[in-house]
Design a protein that fits this description.
Layout lengths: L1 H20 L5 E2 L11 E12 L8 E6 L11 E6 L12 E9 L2 E9 L11
Parallel strand pairs: 1-2, 4-6
Antiparallel strand pairs: 2-3, 2-5, 3-4, 5-6
């Protein structure tokens, strides 16, 4: 009886992992964006200029670059177009996470969140 219960639990766990694992969204930085398809989570640092309005037909337009670029002399960047509610803390220099799809040479974002830098830096004693 115990063996059957354990086997049933393992079967449920495997089924859950198989189903939940296929719906995850890949997280990439601008340098890893080439060749990606489908919905992605793009993480990067906002570089200017920021133009447009997120509620207009043209959308909010800006560029993202890798947060810690491997080649600091020429970091990878990608143009982003966002339609929706802009986060309060959104500005040049802020690390953000945009969810959307690559369309041509730009990233069409449907969701945008900012990262609080104080949560990711070492605290001084």
């Amino acid at each position: 009886m115990v063996a059957l219960s354990v086997a049933a639990l393992l079967a449920v766990f495997l089924l859950y992992t198989a189903v939940a694992g296929t719906s995850s969204t890949p997280q990439v930085q601008p340098s890893e964006l080439a060749g990606q398809t489908g919905t992605l989570s793009l993480t990067g640092k906002v570089v200017g200029p920021i133009t447009g309005d997120s509620h207009s037909s043209e959308g909010l337009q800006f560029k993202l670059r890798d947060i810690n670029p491997a080649d600091a002399t020429k970091p990878a960047t990608v143009a982003v177009v966002f339609h929706g509610s802009k986060p309060d803390m959104f500005k040049v220099g802020r690390d953000v996470n945009a969810t959307g799809k690559l369309q041509g040479n730009s990233f069409a974002a449907t969701a945008l969140t900012t990262k609080c830098p104080s949560k990711y830096t070492d605290k001084k004693a």
